[in-house]
Amino acid sequence: MIDSHKSNRLPWATGNTPLMLAPMQGLTNRAMRALFIDWVRPDVVFTEFMRVGHASRKGLIRSDRKEASSPHGDVPMVAQLVGHSYEALVIAAQDAQEAGVEHLNLNLGCPYGRTTSGATGGALLQHIAVLEKMIPALRAAIHGTFSIKVRSGYSDPQQIFSLLPLFEQSGVDFLIIHPRTVVQQYQGLADHTITQKVVEQCSLPVIANGDIRTAAAGRRLLQETGAAGLMLGRGAINDPLLFERLRNPTAAEPTRAEQAMMLQRYMRDLLSRYSELFCGEVQVLNKLKKVLTFVEEPAFAKQVTQMKRTKTIEAFTALVEELA
Ligand SMILES: Cc1cc2nc3c(=O)[nH]c(=O)nc-3n(C[C@H](O)[C@H](O)[C@H](O)COP(=O)(O)O)c2cc1C
C-alpha cells in the first residue's frame, strides 16, 4: 500500500451507501449528468470513458477536457479513462486533474476494445504485465481518488480474485465490479455471488454494478453482497427515478400514469438540454433516440417506437406531449 494516498477522501461521505450513475458512452454526457443531478441527485456521477491514445497525443482531446471541467455543483464527478499505454494514461490523468478533476477511474471492463497488442478496457485483463505497470503508475500520478471499474474476468469469472492483491497493494481507493466476463459482453445475467465474494476477500470498498432494474433488486443486492454502494446504468437511463425509489424504502414501483409523467418530463428536459449541447436537429434527435433504446417499459413500447422514427424535433415533441 502506498502510504501517501491513505488519506484520500472517497467521493462519498463515510457511513453513506452511495448510489452512482454509471459511465455510459453515448449517454452520460454532461447534459445527461446534469439532468440526473437536478432531478434525482446521484451521490456520484461518472463521465463516459475518455479514450486515451498513444503518449505522443499529449493528454485529453478537447471535447474530453470540456467534459472533465464541466460543473457538477457539489456532486462528485469521476472521470473515466480507457487506454493501453500507461505513459499516455498518466499524461491524460495529469491533464484531467489540471482541468479540475479530483476523482479518476480506470476502465477495465469495456468489451469492445482492441484485444491484441493495443488492448484496452476489458481486453487488458489478458495483459496482466501491462496492468502491473499501469495501475501503480496511475496511482502515483493521481492526487485524489483512483478507482477501477472491472469485469469479473476476461473469460474466467474467477479471474477477479487473482487481481485483488494488485488493486489493494497499489493503493486503489475503491472498486466497481460488473460481474460478467468480458467475453460475455452483456449476455446472461450479472453473477453477484462473485460480487459477494469480492466484498468478502477485498479490503477496498466495493460498488456493485449490473442488472439493477428495480429498487427491490438493488436493496437485495446490497443486503446479499455487503457492497459499499450501487452503480446504476441501463436501469437508470430507463427510469431516472430508480434513484429515488432506492433511497425511499416505502416507495412503490410506479403506476402506468406515473411512468408516463416520468417519461414526458424526462424527454422534455433532455430535449432542452441536448438542444444546447449538440448541434443541429439531426444530431439532437439521434442522441435522444439513443436514450430511447434504453427505455424498455412495455406500456410505452408503441410510443417509444414512434418517437424513434421521427424526423423532426417538432414531431418528436408532439409525441412527447401526448404521453401523459
Ligand atoms: C451503451 C453503453 C455504454 C457504456 N459505456 C461505458 C463506459 O463508457 N465506461 C464503462 O466503464 N462502462 C460502460 N458501460 C457499462 C456500464 O457502465 C455498466 O457497467 C453496464 O451497463 C452494467 O450495468 P447496468 O446493468 O446497470 O447497465 C456501458 C454500457 C452501455 C450499455
Descriptive overview:
There is one protein chain. With 324 residues, the chain is α/β, with parallel strands linked by helices. It has two domains: 3-247, Aldolase class I (TIM Barrel, Alpha-Beta Barrel), CATH 3.20.20.70; 256-321, no CATH class. 43% of the residues lie in helices and 15% in strands. The chain has 13 helices and eight strands. It has helices at 30-39, 62-68, 86-98, 128-141, 159-169, 192-201, 215-225, 234-238, 242-247, 256-277, 281-292, 301-309, 313-321; strands spanning 19-21, 44-52, 77-83, 103-108, 146-153, 174-181, 206-209, 229-232. Strands 1-2-3-4-5-6-7-8 form an eight-stranded parallel beta barrel, surrounded by six helices. Strand 6, helix 6 (192-201) and strand 7 (206-209) form a beta-alpha-beta unit. Helix 1 (30-39) crosses helix 10 (256-277) and helix 12 packs antiparallel against helix 13. It is globular, with a radius of gyration of 20 Å. The chain starts with 18 loop residues before the first strand and ends with a helix. The relative contact order is 0.11.
List the helices and strands and how they pair.
Layout: E1 19-21, H1 30-39, E2 44-52, H2 62-68, E3 77-83, H3 86-98, E4 103-108, H4 128-141, E5 146-153, H5 159-169, E6 174-181, H6 192-201, E7 206-209, H7 215-225, E8 229-232, H8 234-238, H9 242-247, H10 256-277, H11 281-292, H12 301-309, H13 313-321
Parallel strand pairs: 1-2, 1-8, 2-3, 3-4, 4-5, 5-6, 6-7, 7-8
The structure holds flavin mononucleotide.
Flavin mononucleotide is lined by residues 22-27, 48-49, 80, 107, 109-110, 149, 178, 209-212, 232-235.
